[in-house]
Specification:
By secondary structure, the chain is α+β, with helices and mostly antiparallel strands. 30% of the residues lie in helices and 29% in strands. It has helices at residues 9-14, 38-49, 82-88, 91-115, 135-147, 157-164, 182-194, 304-325, 370-385, and strands at 4-6, 27-34, 54-57, 73-74, 120-122, 125-129, 152-156, 170-174, 178-180, 199-201, 206-212, 215-220, 225-233, 249-258, 273-276, 282-286, 292-300, 333-343, 350-354, 357-364.
């Protein structure tokens, strides 16, 4: 599946950071991770920290799937507001899912600090509405988050104008949040884990996974075999190649990034991430060098041709969206791109074993919280592989 189009900024900016070998001989391991994006990298980090022997394989060069297109906002908010998620699942599952994402932000920051990855920044997150008639909606969401224990505050249109230069009617400001470079972090975590024994192979396509005599045998497109006790599938949206259950609907999401800004100070106070309730939605964040990233304008995914055809149109729409809410900014797009984006029916990820493949675990952090849910998935699966009970595993299981 073609997952990106256009010119993802992180790939343009960073290039091919490291070179990894292709698997060209048979090998054995305790755990095989399929997928070399941020989900696989976090899994590799946690497994090697736990002392497990594992390898990671990816059919592409490392990080060139959805990860290089990620705009890497680390937020606890899911694609669906908390007060609405309670109606889709249960109050406990909704609140706990939000809390897990909040905890994951702190844990990801701690991992980046511990491993020496400097390309991250803690920043608050402003959830805003441009519609006067959404006052009650925003108040209900504010109370849901506050009652769940989050540090949040209501902002008026005047406060948002004075603090952020934002034209909006209602706002909820959350103190928990961060931004990063998912592509760079992926390579960094893999390099760190490789020093502790992780073996990484790219351009290595798995064509079959079969159970044989209490182990799994993975065949590659180049006729190599990997004997593994367990497999973790962290291939993201390409999981459709491995599982026969309809678990995700695909959309195409779009992003643009401005030229480098000459101003040395932040373009708005607190360098907050901004996310609107509108349909189509809009989100905006800053990079370390004061570029402005904006994204949204999703469309149902069809094929790479239509996605590419939409790109110029979506760029213009996103530019207009930014100027409508941040009219004081001088925004000129330098790069634009699109990426495949998946949503589940209940907006929650799928994590854990699938009944037809009991030795295969899945780490599928679908939705706008892909990175934070990937951290959650790594912790859950790491526990399951060590026969430790994880109290949150059942919320994200395939039979929920």
């Amino acid at each position: 599946m073609e997952l990106t189009a256009g010119y993802p900024f992180w790939l343009i900016n960073d290039g091919l950071l490291y070179h990894y070998p292709k698997l060209i001989e048979n090998t054995k391991t305790h755990v095989t991770i399929i997928g070399g994006g941020i989900s696989g990298a976090l899994m590799g980090y946690h497994l090697t920290e736990a002392g497990m022997d594992c390898i990671l394989v990816d059919s592409r060069s490392i990080g060139l799937g959805s990860t290089c297109a990620s705009t890497a906002l680390l937020q606890y908010e899911l694609d669906i507001p908390l007060h609405l998620l309670k109606k889709k699942t249960s109050e406990y599952v909704a609140i706990r899912s939000y809390q897990l994402c909040g905890e994951a932000i702190d844990k990801l920051v701690a991992i980046m600090e511990e491993t020496g990855f400097a390309q991250f920044e803690k920043s608050p997150s402003l959830y805003f509405s441009t519609h006067r008639n959404e006052k009650d909606f925003m108040q209900e969401e504010y109370m849901a988050r506050k009652n769940a224990g989050f540090d949040v505050g209501r902002l008026s249109s005047e406060q948002m104008e004075s603090r952020f230069g934002l034209h909006a009617r209602h706002g909820i400001l959350s103190q928990a949040g961060a931004t990063t470079n998912a592509y760079g972090l992926t390579h960094h975590l893999l390099q760190y884990a490789m020093k502790k024994g992780l073996r990484v192979y790219d351009r290595t396509t798995i064509t079959a996974v079969e159970e044989k005599n209490n182990h799994l045998e993975l065949a590659t497109i180049d006729n190599c075999l990997v004997q593994s006790d367990y497999v973790i599938n962290a291939s993201g949206y390409e999981v459709v190649n491995f599982i026969d259950k309809d678990i995700v609907n695909f959309d195409c999401t779009y992003a643009i990034i401005s030229e480098h800004q000459e101003e040395k100070k932040a373009l708005w106070n607190e360098r907050a991430m901004l996310w609107s309730t509108d349909d189509p939605y809009l989100y905006v964040r800053l990079t370390a060098d004061n570029r402005i990233i904006a994204g949204g304008r999703d469309e149902p995914f069809s094929n790479k041709v239509t996605r590419q055809l939409f790109l110029n149109k979506k760029q213009k729409q996103l530019e207009k969206d930014v100027k409508n809410v941040l009219p004081g900014l001088n925004f000129k797009t330098e790069f634009s791109w699109s990426g495949t984006f998946g949503k589940t029916k209940d907006s929650l990820p799928y994590i854990g074993p699938y009944h037809k493949t009991p030795r295969v675990f899945y780490a599928l952090g679908f939705g706008g919280n892909g990175i934070t849910f990937s951290q959650v998935a790594a912790e859950i699966i790491c526990d399951l592989l060590q026969s430790r009970k994880n109290p949150d595993a059942s919320m994200f299981s395939f039979n929920r």
